[in-house]
Amino acid sequence: MPENTNENAGIPPEGGFPPIPPVPSSPAAGPSPVTGPGPVTGPGPAAGHGPRPGPGGYGGHGGRMGGRGRGPRRNRPGSEGDGSGDGKGENELAEKVVFINRSAKVVKGGRRFSFSALVVVGDKRGRVGLGLGKGGEVSDAIRKGGEIPRNRMVAVSLKANTIPHEVTSRYCGACILLRPASPGTGVIAGKTVRAVLESVGIKDVLSKSLGSKNASNVVKATIEALRNLRRRDEILKVRGIRPRVNAPGDGGQPS
């Protein structure tokens, strides 16, 4: 059989069909060249939702997860200008719970409990008050005990961070002794007396409880001792004596 070449291509052989033209050979397909990874891009914005919000949310201040944010600070407690952001505002009062008592009343179905809380409130600048709150829950008793003394606080005469002189006070069976101390001494007192002294703002003082340990009587005796304190200028004013400053013969010290 003659060889199928370009000369006789397309000429049908005798008694058969025309041969199929040869298919042009293509180069061998090898593996595609390896290219490095392209730049990694994040997911695009969802259709119909616009651009993604920034760290502050949609115009807010401080949104962490792209939320709506809280908006600008306007008329918030603790913002600039109101003096309450640092916790040292003029009307800030410190509350200290001195003692919590539980009482029980026996009824037909069992026992019914009630609580009383002894709370000391002070501004740490020479004013202190005492309140006794009662309620069916401890939180209610503490809340009531903190609200009572806010309107009936007493002023205390202080000398720098200590008291001007030694004082002793009694209330029922409790007896409290207070003495001034040098700077750096600290508050040397028990937990009941300490709560009152720290609420007033005293930082250096010596104290001793000489009588009953009843918390209510000890606190009242301590407050009574603080009320009996008088500075030198207050005593001279009551006596009608003008203080002498740089008077001759006394070494230039005020009398």
Mind explaining what this structure looks like?
- With 255 residues, the protein is of the alpha+beta class.
- The chain has a domain at 94-234: Ribosomal Protein S5, domain 2.
- Helices cover 16% and strands 22% of the residues.
- It is built from four helices and eight strands.
- The protein has helices at residues 138-147, 191-200, 215-227, 232-239; strands spanning 94-107, 110-122, 127-135, 154-155, 167-171, 174-180, 187-188, 205-209.
- It has a four-stranded antiparallel sheet with strand order 1-2-3-4. Strands 5-6-8-7 form a four-stranded mixed sheet.
- A hairpin with a 2-residue loop joins strand 1 and strand 2.
- Helix 2 (191-200) runs parallel beside helix 3 (215-227).
- It is elongated.
- The N and C termini lie far apart (147 Å).
Task: Summarize the entry for a quick read.
Helices cover 16% and strands 22% of the residues. The protein has 255 residues and is of the alpha+beta class. α2 (191-200) runs parallel beside α3.
Q: Give the name of the CATH architecture of one domain.
A: 2-Layer Sandwich
From the N-terminal CA to the C-terminal CA, the straight-line distance is 147 Å
Predict the CATH topology of one domain.
Ribosomal Protein S5, domain 2
- Report the strand count: 8
Structural class comes to alpha+beta
The largest sheet has its strands arranged as 1-2-3-4
The proportion of residues in beta strands is 15-25%
How can the largest sheet be summarized?
Answer: 4 strands, antiparallel
Oligomeric state of the chains present here: single chain
Please write the string of helix (H) and strand (E) elements.
Answer: EEEHEEEEHEHH
**Unreliable stretches covering 5 or more consecutive residues:** 75-90, 249-253
What's the mean pLDDT score?
76
The CATH class of one domain turns out to be: Alpha Beta
